[in-house]
Amino acid sequence: MDVVLVGLPGSGKSVIGRRVAHRHDAAFIDLDERIEAAAGRTIPQLFEDEGEAGFRARERAAVVALGHADRDPAIKRVVATGGGTIVDPRNRWHLYRGRLPIWLDGRPEVLAQRLRRSTNVRPLVAGRDPIGSIRDLGRKRERFYGAAIRVRGVAEVGRVIERVDEIIATHGSASAGGHVLLRADTAIGSIVLGEGIAASEVAAALVRLGARRAILVSEPGAWSAFGEALAGALERGGLTTARVMLPQGEAAKRLSVVERAAGDLAALRVERGEPIVAIGGGAVGDAAGFLAATYLRGIPVIHVPTTLVAQIDSSIGGKTGVDLDAGKNLVGAYHQPAAVVIDTAALRTLPERERRAALGEAVKMAALGDERLFELLEIGGEAIARGDPAASETGAVAELVERAAWAKVEVVLADEREAAGRIALNLGHSVGHAIEAAAGFSEIRHGEAVAHGLRAACRIGVAHGVTPADRAERIERLLDALGLATEQPALGADDVLGRLAVDKKHASGRLRWVLPTAGGHEVRDDVPDEVVRRIVDELLAASVGSAER
Predict the structure, then answer these.
(1) Helix, strand or coil for residue 485?
(2) Which of 174, 303, 438, 480 is 20 to 30 A from residue 34's alpha carbon, by CA?
(3) Which residues have C-beta within 8 Å of that of residue 185, sequence separation ≥ 6?
């Protein structure tokens, strides 16, 4: 088994690592030393010569060079990482899977004092206020370190080594189970991402909430693919479970369905403060979230998203809603979850159409300014859509989920109730929701509709002088490569435009359009109706014409 030590600069990873390795007769690997030896230069020199991006590329190569984790229960290697190694999702994928990651945590004042005495220069801290720099790095990296087992109050070396040995003895077989890749406690709930983690993390969340049982809300497809096994694991762990089933797909998002489900909760005598666990895709999450928001005027909800679109988008942010005949999500509430447990293992059995459609939401997040996500989709998006096993094994799927999901977390944290910046997340959604509604919420997947909406937003943006032509071309080229919105839906323009009239993003009678810019977005409410009509006609003309022939 490999032990991986992570933590901020000054946390003692190298010192502790050497001693732990010696105690267990294991090999010790210092990643920074390996990088310096391979480059023939010190890390400060690498930062000066190649910049942080160049150094991080060398760091990624050093992590990959570690090879596969050693599955022997005995400690074979102890790896000390650089403070920022785990910021890269792929590095965590390689370092945390099948290994035992331990976070050496300490107070910024203690770490700063160590750095003052150290002859080893840390480029990201040098020349700055050490305590302030350490605190800033800690805030930015806590969700990455938090996926490891925490050793608090790093101070006396001997005591730290004893605690690390206790963890090894207690959690030594942890590498055989699930692997947490990210953990964050936020104002919009606890967010945990990993592989094979659903049962343990849901159980832990229920314990934190003081739950006496697990009330599982799902639908037939998600239940057979994932929910039933999760229920079994919870029961084997000692929890009593009860089940409330919703219809499959968008049919779950009707007021009549919520009324019946509320009746089921009443029959189960669910009390205020007793959480429900929503297992499924976006429709289940929306309906179960609305049920939780309204039953007994609000009970906790834990989301376990089982589709790609739910993992990267709909399970995050606290928006709940049901549909009316007039439009999508016209009745709803803001109700933040107690926890969101994102288990990428749930995606293994997902049909290709569901994976591909979800990438419409991922392209949206990339178009809002995440260049690394854009590149990831351009290079590996098609393999992810196909369900290529290599896309999972290399960590591409986990990186996609993390980058898209956390981008949404940051937007929502800045604007929980869509008072200002959160409207950015509606890029592509005006025409997208209108197409969904016109298609009766059944023929077109949400992500597919968003892809059509992205094309519309790009073309409206170019026509309105907001979106540079090359940016629009790059977004549409990516949609082409992913096979999204390449065939026009067989809908009439008048129907789609009529649905736009009840779009939730109206203010003072004017529709606020989210339009892409060179590296972000702009919100405009002065887009001429004739421009919208022309572009919607353009997007729908081919299929309507073929239907008429």
Answers:
(1) coil
(2) 174
(3) none
